[in-house]
Amino acid sequence: MQLILEMLSYPFLVRAAIVGLLVSLCAALLGVSLVLKRYAMIGDGLSHVGFGALAIAMALNAAPLAVAIPIVVLAAFFLLRISENSKIKGDAAIALISTSALAIGVIVISYTTGMNTDVYNYMFGSILAMSNGDVALSVVLSVIVLLLFFLFYHKIFALTFDETFAQATGAKTGLYKILIAFLTAITIVLGMRMIGTLLITSLIIFPTLTSMRVCKRFRSVVLCSSLLSVVCFLSGLIFSYLYATPTGASIVVANLLAFLLFSALGVLLGRRKT
Questions:
Q1: CA 34 – CA 184 distance, rounded (Å)
Q2: Number of neighbouring beta carbons within 10 Å of residue 69
Q3: Which residue stretches of the chain have pLDDT < 50?
Q4: Nearest-angstrom CA–CA distance, 190 and 184
Q5: Sign, CA torsion 92/186/47/255
């Protein structure tokens, strides 16, 4: 309790905790559908697009989130479109867009600010990068993501497990795919400020894969991954504060340890059943 009170006495840690908890929760919820639909690496692709957008924002001296969010949302829609309606499929489409955006971002930075501390923070994350304006915008957008997810929970469930059946019943599957892409894009951009471009995908993948080691039902995986994501974020934040380690990397390591623990637990439970 004393440690928590000490951490809460620092405004930047309070901002990091608020945004981090919301973003972790959003990423875990969306991650279940993305992993089961084999769209998990879309987070990696969109994060690279976000880096390119942030580089452009820095070159123009514009607000980073105001520039990055619409660009990443458009990239998510474009990625969804070309992966479904062209000869470029799945991982190839993601690789095409992500590497192109990353290259553009590096070129823009090389001609403007250079590889400075701000660029490092965007690539690997920094709790010091969150201003009051960023926090306010992040909280509003995170709440919107959570509300839309729970409002369309049953549609997302149907789309995840049997898209053909959902389409046969009259569900607008294309619209809900766009919704998932939109929510994912917003979550990716928000998480980049906290955990970094190179690590944000872990917030989407790890909680779901960890929960699936033990849980077998969609709802139980959603609940477990949400709880795990929050716990791992707090654990990583506390470890980072105590031992002065990078926050983003500490959160990823916490997720890795949880995955190993649940994997061992899943093996033990499987042996007991047999």
A1: 9
A2: 20
A3: none
A4: 10
A5: negative
